């Protein structure tokens, strides 16, 4: 059985012009011609075309493909084994490339342009991506969230380390105040709560006193925040919330106003 050049082009997903070119350079000469002189391709021709296209897909130049296919010491089975290995190697490279691109996409989506090693170096055992879906669901439509994403996308590892160090310093001073029995409505505790609010404004998004009190309440109402904050000192989440509320009231925002 033989096939026309148009049929073969359709089978192989190439152009008729490509087949004409392969014929002209001797890479794939059709096995027969019709009475009218039209090219006719048989099954052996199709097998050779398949091998050509395999090698072309792998980036081999036509001249090298011709040498490989016409080597009398290589049988068709050897070609298949060679192509299988070449394709397997390429698939593995592409898989690694795809994984790298996926990580880059995820990092951009999360707004944290760090490698896993860098994230561990900066954040320790706290994973900033762990609750990303929930964060997007709860606050994704807010300007604060969008501002946070914009800023985070531009931060380097050194930026994140500086932000984390500043936050840790504030946390440690809260622990010291709590350990000393300093009342949350004292000037020093309220001043530190204000510093905490300004740190959020400076590092993440504009955080007014109303939003700050919402965060303070969440530190206590959501056990995940409570457990993480209380790692620095048992009861710190409650102490931090109360200092935030006292500071907000000092600046004219009554906690009761937020419900």
UniProtKB/TrEMBL annotation:
Keyword tags: Coiled coil
UniProt key word Zinc: no
CDD domains assigned: HTH_TipAL-Mta (cd01106)
PROSITE patterns per UniProt: HTH_MERR_1 (PS00552), HTH_MERR_2 (PS50937)
Keyword Cytoplasm annotated: no
A Pfam short name: TipAS
Coiled coil: 77-104
Domain HTH merR-type: start-end pairs: 1-71
Name of this chain's protein: MerR family transcriptional regulator
Naturally occurring in which organism (per UniProt): Streptomyces rhizosphaericus
């Amino acid at each position: 059985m033989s096939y026309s050049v148009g049929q073969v082009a359709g089978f192989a997903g190439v152009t008729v012009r490509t087949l004409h070119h392969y014929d002209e350079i001797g890479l794939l000469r059709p096995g027969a011609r019709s009475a009218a002189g039209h090219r006719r391709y048989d099954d052996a021709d199709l097998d050779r075309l398949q091998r050509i296209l395999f090698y072309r897909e792998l980036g081999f130049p036509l001249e090298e493909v011709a040498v490989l296919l016409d080597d009398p010491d290589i049988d068709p089975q050897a070609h298949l084994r060679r192509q299988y290995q070449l394709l397997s190697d390429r698939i593995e490279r592409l898989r690694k490339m795809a994984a790298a691109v996926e990580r880059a996409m995820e990092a951009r989506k999360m707004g944290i342009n760090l490698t896993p090693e860098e994230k561990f170096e900066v954040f320790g055992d706290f994973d900033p991506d762990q609750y990303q879906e929930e964060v997007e669901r709860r606050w994704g439509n807010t300007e604060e969230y969008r501002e946070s994403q914009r800023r985070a996308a531009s931060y380097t590892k050194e930026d994140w380390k500086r932000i984390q160090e500043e936050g840790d310093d504030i946390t440690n001073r809260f622990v010291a105040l709590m350990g000393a029995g300093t009342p949350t409505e004292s000037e020093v505790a309220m001043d530190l709560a204000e510093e905490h609010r300004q740190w959020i404004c400076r590092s993440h998004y504009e955080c007014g006193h109303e939003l700050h009190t919402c965060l303070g309440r969440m530190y206590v109402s959501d056990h995940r925040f409570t457990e993480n904050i209380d790692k620095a000192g048992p009861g710190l989440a409650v102490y931090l919330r109360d200092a935030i509320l006292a500071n907000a009231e000092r600046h004219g925002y009554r906690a009761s106003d937020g419900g």
